């Protein structure tokens, strides 16, 4: 499919690649000769969850954008050979630090990402991850420094024990099962309720856009068991602090001050764990990418990916995006 905007034409390609023993569905946008940007999505979300305006904006800035479905969601391989885990039991074990029995870990998912880059012949990429995708991106940057041009970790965490967890309402929204026999309307309504709960209070996404995105995702793929396995992969993967301290590429950490799912303290901890990382806190932002913030995010990413963002020098406090204060 060919997309165009004034002064620019590029091709969007939806395809699959065999990597790390699985099939990975991916989409590329832009000119393959431009610097590559790998987008890694979060828990249970498909590649189409990346806002088109963000993807198109990165292409306009001169980047070749690669986004993909993580294993167990979307059109990538589903690990049906592994039964659906008991999330309540996994959560209780995580509270006391017991070892988790997981079908795979975030390290495996990082290997998937590297395998996709290999399949596409991409030697190095700017790596941008959101939520769980941020955790995977951190692992890519820490384990494969020669393949990572820069790291951007958005609304994510280091996994360090002792960090604050979700609000009770956010946790319950994720853990609460749908009633038996729930129909499509109930699934959509519940999803709207959840996304509204964890979303940005100062930048609410219009409900019609939210419902359209949910309907589109349901039409493309449904994988509740895969989501559960990904959730256990997160808790089974543990603390990444030691790995984060080894990262030497330019790193940007973006977090919403009003995130109820992964509190802003987790973003601050991530930035403090990565040498020289820049922390940008956005007031009023929750755990989503609302349309009202896309231009601000693109401006931050453009500075970061071009190496024009001033480094954060400890022990200065984090810059709060939009506050007018620069360090």
Could you characterize the architecture of this molecule?
With 327 residues, this protein is of the alpha/beta class. The chain has a single domain, classed as Alpha/Beta hydrolase fold, catalytic domain (Rossmann fold). Helices cover 38% and strands 19% of the residues. α1 links the parallel β4 (36-40) and β5 (64-68). α2 runs parallel beside α8. It starts with a strand and ends in a 6-residue tail after the last strand. The model is unreliable at 1-9 and 322-327 (pLDDT under 50).
Summarize the model shown:
With 327 residues, the chain is an alpha/beta fold.
Given the structure, what is the number of helices?
A: 11
Ends distance: 43 Å
Summarize the amount of helix as a percent range: 25-40%
Mean model confidence by pLDDT: 88
CATH architecture: 3-Layer(aba) Sandwich
* Contiguous runs where pLDDT drops below 50 for at least 5 residues: 1-9, 322-327
Tally of strands: 10
Strand order of the largest sheet: 1-2-3-5-4-6-7-8-9-10
Level-1 CATH class name: Alpha Beta
Rg from C-alpha positions?
19 Å
- The CATH superfamily turns out to be Alpha/Beta hydrolase fold, catalytic domain
The fraction of residues in strands falls at: 15-25%
* Shape call: globular
The SSE order reads: EEEEHEHHEHEHHHHHEHEHE
């Amino acid at each position: 499919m060919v997309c165009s905007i004034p002064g620019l034409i590029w091709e969007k390609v939806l395809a699959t690649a065999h990597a790390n023993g699985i099939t990975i569905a991916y989409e590329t946008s832009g000119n393959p000769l431009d610097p590559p940007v790998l987008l890694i999505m979060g828990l249970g979300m498909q590649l189409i969850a990346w806002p088109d305006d963000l993807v198109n904006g990165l292409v306009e800035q001169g980047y070749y954008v690669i986004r993909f479905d993580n294993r167990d969601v979307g059109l990538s391989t589903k690990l049906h050979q592994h039964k659906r885990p008991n999330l309540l039991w996994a959560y209780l074990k995580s509270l006391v630090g017991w070892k988790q029995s997981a079908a795979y870990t975030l390290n495996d998912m990082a290997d998937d990402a590297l395998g996709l880059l290999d399949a596409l012949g991409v030697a190095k990429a700017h790596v941008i991850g959101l939520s769980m995708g941020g955790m995977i991106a951190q692992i890519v940057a820490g384990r494969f420094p020669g393949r990572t041009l820069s790291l951007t970790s958005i609304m994510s965490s280091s996994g360090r024990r002792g960090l604050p967890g979700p609000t009770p309402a956010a946790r319950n929204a994720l853990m609460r099962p749908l009633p038996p026999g729930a129909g499509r309307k109930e699934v959509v309504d519940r999803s709207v309720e959840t996304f509204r709960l964890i979303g940005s209070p100062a930048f609410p996404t219009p409900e019609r856009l939210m419902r359209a995105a949910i309907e589109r995702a349901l039409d493309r793929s449904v994988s509740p068991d895969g989501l559960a396995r990904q959730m256990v992969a997160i808790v089974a993967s543990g603390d990444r602090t030691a790995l984060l301290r080894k990262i030497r590429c330019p790193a940007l950490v973006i977090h919403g001050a009003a995130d109820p799912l992964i509190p802003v303290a987790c973003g601050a901890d991530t930035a403090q764990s990565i040498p020289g990382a820049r922390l940008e806190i956005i007031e009023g932002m929750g755990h989503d990418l609302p349309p009202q913030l896309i231009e601000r995010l693109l401006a931050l990413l453009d500075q970061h990916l071009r190496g024009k963002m001033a480094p954060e020098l400890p022990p200065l406090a984090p810059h709060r995006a939009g506050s007018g204060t620069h360090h």
